[in-house]
Amino acid sequence: MNFYRQKIIIGSLKTGGIGVLPTDTIYGLVGLALKPEAVQRIHKLKDRDTNKPFIILIGEVADLEKFDIKLSPAQQKFLTTNWPGAISVILSCPSPKFEYLHRGTGTIAFRLPSSKPLRELLNATGPLVAPSANPEGQKPAKTIKEAKAYFGNQIDFYLSGKTKDTPSTLVKIEESGKIEILREGRGKLK
Fold it and tell me: What is the pLDDT of residue 72?
């Protein structure tokens, strides 16, 4: 991505814009996780069940602190072993100030992507919610053309790039280190 285009995308996201871009798995419909209005806009566009939280992409493990998440030694070990990569990890986040993200579940899924350019973008913008680029019940967009057919001009920007056809592996990890695999995906546990 050229420097000028990158600056426009970063500026759009920082001011509450939303867009479609390639993640390390599939195309994501993205917005700043710490901007409730961007998160709500994505929920509305996806026509998503309001009780279902989104996966949040982070640029580094330290970003978890922005969500008041304190890792146990077992969780820290798991993340150090399995991140970066295509593994989304559900962690406890009971703080009421993040209810717009956890939707009353008290948990949020996070992923530290393996794509270095994506992590650089995340470090410039901050954590992004990144559900698949499709309305609820439809197949995830595999191309920007498909994403545009879903969302048209309701999106602030589209960025094309290479993606995979498989979403991330989704796991829940308790403070004790107990792991539950909720969805088999592209990531393989180590």
Answer: 94
Q: Name the amino acid, one letter, at 175.
A: E
Task: Locate 104 and state its tokens.
Answer: 């009353």
Decide if 166 is inside a domain: yes
Q: Which distant-in-sequence residues (6+ apart) come within 8 Å of 67 by Cβ?
A: 33, 56, 93, 95, 98, 101, 108, 127
Q: Which CATH number characterizes residue 70's domain? A: 3.90.870.10
HSE-up of residue 44 (Cα within 13 Å, Cβ side): 10
Cβ–Cβ < 8 Å for 121, 129: no
CA pair distance 165, 186, nearest whole angstrom: 9
Q: Do the Cβ atoms of 117 and 103 come closer than 8 Å?
A: no
Sign of the CA dihedral 76, 77, 80, 81?
negative
Residue 190 lies in a domain: no
Q: Tens of pLDDT along 69-79?
A: 999 999 999 99
- Cβ(121)–Cβ(10) under 8 Å? yes
Q: Residue 171 is part of which domain span?
A: 3-183
Rg (CA), the chain: 15
Amino acid at 29: L
Percent with pLDDT over 70 in the chain: 99
Place of tokens 């998160």: 39
Q: Annotate 83-98 with DSSP letters as a single string.
A: -SSSEEEEEE---GGG
Total-model pTM: 0.94
